[in-house]
Amino acid sequence: MEEIRENDGKLIGSKAFSLHTITGEELKVPPFICITTEAYERYLESTSIKGRIILELSRKDIKDMRWEEMWDTSLRIRNMFLNTPIPEELDRGIREQLIKYFSDTAVVVRSSAPGEDSEKTSFAGLHESYVNVRGIDSIMEHIRLVWASLWSDAALLYREELGLDINHSSMAVLVQELVAGEVSGIVFSKGPENNNQMVIEAVHGLNKGLVDGDVEPDRWLVDREKKSIIRHSGPSVRGKIVRLKETGTALEKLPENLSDTIPLKEKDVLEIHYIALELEKKIRAGSGY
């Protein structure tokens, strides 16, 4: 990712470009590489999938489809990816890069579509990410699964609602070393209900439980300017945790010694507040869009 330039945001997608922007001496970011939108387009062109997608979408305008028709269209398109191997030359090029960094490393394979996780379009939860993927063959398989998720029924509907050109949708894929933290979470540097507040959510174990909605988080509202905690609210029950298996993850019962333990201390919350504001500045300054 060291070769990325300022105008490469559309080549690697919003998520990967943001990670590239914040990577440096001040912040530890797990190693990652990005399979670019160019690789995705080469795959479509060299396998004839692109023409087949156009044919599928020409049968009926998305906005005129009933939900079940959209689901059927989405399924047919996604099956094209699942049943079509990556051509040998492209496959070899991607594998060469993966072997350099992740031959013996557990990774997360994540979507990084242009416009994803941006200020105007979030696509939260609409594209797939896979946690604890091991081995080059498995990573290659999951890259196709992420490409396919661009065409989920929910993603198609979201693009239609935003007035985006579905025919020109594209997908980069982020492959990043997995760090299994004891506590993980999400930060909204500007709260969805009040831009003067920051929202911090945290759970014990992996973040996947929080993102998937399987684990209810502890939540803090923090005043962006005053650097003070406005309110902390805990879950109704701290009863579940997502942990690593040999491959993939498992939703398990939270150990009793953690059920009464708040995931973050006050000093942790305020440190996250400071880091989030610094990252916000860096990402705005380095935006490639």
UniProtKB/TrEMBL annotation:
<dbReference type="InterPro" id="IPR013815">
    <property type="entry name" value="ATP_grasp_subdomain_1"/>
</dbReference>
<keyword id="KW-0479">Metal-binding</keyword>
<keyword id="KW-0670">Pyruvate</keyword>
<keyword id="KW-0808">Transferase</keyword>
<keyword id="KW-0418">Kinase</keyword>
<dbReference type="GO" id="GO:0005524">
    <property type="term" value="F:ATP binding"/>
</dbReference>
<comment type="function">
    <text>Catalyzes the phosphorylation of pyruvate to phosphoenolpyruvate.</text>
</comment>
<comment type="similarity">
    <text>Belongs to the PEP-utilizing enzyme family.</text>
</comment>
<dbReference type="InterPro" id="IPR006319">
    <property type="entry name" value="PEP_synth"/>
</dbReference>
<protein>
    <recommendedName>
        <fullName>pyruvate, water dikinase</fullName>
        <ecNumber>2.7.9.2</ecNumber>
    </recommendedName>
</protein>
<dbReference type="GO" id="GO:0008986">
    <property type="term" value="F:pyruvate, water dikinase activity"/>
</dbReference>
<dbReference type="InterPro" id="IPR002192">
    <property type="entry name" value="PPDK_AMP/ATP-bd"/>
</dbReference>
<dbReference type="GO" id="GO:0046872">
    <property type="term" value="F:metal ion binding"/>
</dbReference>
<comment type="pathway">
    <text>Carbohydrate biosynthesis; gluconeogenesis.</text>
</comment>
<keyword id="KW-0460">Magnesium</keyword>
<dbReference type="Pfam" id="PF01326">
    <property type="entry name" value="PPDK_N"/>
</dbReference>
<keyword id="KW-0547">Nucleotide-binding</keyword>
<keyword id="KW-0067">ATP-binding</keyword>
<feature type="domain" description="Pyruvate phosphate dikinase AMP/ATP-binding">
    <location>
        <begin position="10"/>
        <end position="282"/>
    </location>
</feature>
